[in-house]
Here is the input.
Amino acid sequence: MLNLKFIVPLLIVISAAVWWLMPHYSDEDKGYYIAMFCTLTHDGRGNAPQDMQQIIEGSNSDYALQKVHFQQALAEHLQTVWQDLSPEQQQQARQENLSCRRLMSEKLLPGQPVQ
Here is the structure.
């Protein structure tokens, strides 16, 4: 009985810590990264996380009070989603920016309209 009184709170604390440490991205961040990824893909430039980082951090003004920080894990997740698309879907996404945003949003922002 003593073990159960100790194990249950310990499991609750561990579960809360795991949830807290998991990356949580806002829908706004996901949309921003999708738009940037699709723009890079459509323009024929590299869509690697390093390319995205250069644009995101390079667009910060020196005088900006709130600088946008690059989120490596989100960019890598976009790459994973891209790799999971079929070659036909990738080709379609390269040709049409809206199609790219729609395909990527289906995976990262399910149920939300794409504009």
